Amino acid sequence: MPSSERARQLALSSCQPPTDGKGRPFSLDGINPSDKPFGSDDKAADKAAVEALAIELDTLQNLFYADRRFKLLVILQGMDTSGKDGTLRAVFSRMSPLGVHTVGWKAPTEPERAHDYLWRIHQQVPAAGETMVFNRSHYEDVLVPVVNGWITPGQASQRYAHINDFERMLAETGTIILKFMLHISLDEQRERLQERVDDPAKHWKFSMGDLEVRKQWDAYQKAYEALLGATSVPHAPWTVVPANSKTHRNLMIATVLRDTLQSLSLRYPTGDPALTGLKIA
């Protein structure tokens, strides 16, 4: 293994909570949001690398769609302004809409609340050959209710178990699950929120409720640490992405996605023998 690749794998492992099933909270203090383990000191070069990866991912996604032995679920979680939308634009924009879909999860509707909290999620998981990207996800149901005290610690633990069982079922029926927590600092969030306030073209992205959630920053960090430890499992591991740098965030996620698709030994389906020697008049 080349030294650069070895270093990348070591950096990746340090950003992934243990999958030993012990469920210990995973401390976010050990990962600096400003670090760039997959990047370099040359921002232009890193941006070019992201663009090259996006083109490579387009080719791999086309093969993934044709192969149809697998499904791919990519989960993007993070605090407000952590870059979920930006990741979608930079990493997935080159892929064909034919086989790539995304869902931006909001607060559940009344009909959705009338069912169990995973009911609406299950309806949106990918079919064979599809890639589905969740902008937020079912993990909101072990973040918002926990921080606001709407469920007890026992109920939260029960939900962790539900989610692990749900994702195991998906994995055992052919779904590859990649979960990314976009990790930014409190100061970085302040700057990005201020940018939304100062730029009229970004006012639509800002809500006064964002400021109330910001006041709960420490509680959300603890909730994330708990869910990362409880739900990072072999069939659906978490990766914490240092995301103060938008370019590094995109580069790291695109690299992990590329490496995952390459590891699947994707292939085109066997062609129709009747095509051999066929000449179109």
In terms of topology, how is this protein built?
Elements (H helix, E strand, L loop, with lengths): L2 H12 L28 H25 L3 E8 L5 H9 L7 E5 L5 H4 L5 H4 L8 E5 L8 H4 L5 H20 L2 E9 L2 H13 L9 H7 L2 H15 L6 E5 L3 H17 L19
Parallel strand pairs: 1-3, 1-4, 2-3, 4-5
Helix pairs in contact: 2-11, 3-11
**Gyration radius from CA atoms, angstroms:** 20 Å
Order of helices and strands: HHEHEHHEHHEHHHEH
- Tally of extended strands? 5
Strand order of the largest sheet: 2-3-1-4-5
Structural class: alpha/beta
Number of helices: 11
Work out the helicity level. Answer: 40-55%
> Distance between termini?
50 Å
Chain-averaged pLDDT:
94
Task: Write structural notes for this entry.
- With 281 residues, the protein is α/β, with parallel strands linked by helices.
- The chain has eleven helices and five strands, in the order ααβαβααβααβαααβα.
- It has helices spanning 3-14, 43-67, 84-92, 110-113, 119-122, 144-147, 153-172, 186-198, 208-214, 217-231, 246-262; strands at 71-78, 100-104, 131-135, 175-183, 238-242.
- The protein has a five-stranded parallel β-sheet, with helices on both faces.
- Helix 2 (43-67) runs parallel beside helix 11 (246-262) and helix 3 crosses helix 11.
- The chain is globular, with a radius of gyration of 20 Å.
- The model has no long low-confidence stretch (mean pLDDT 94).
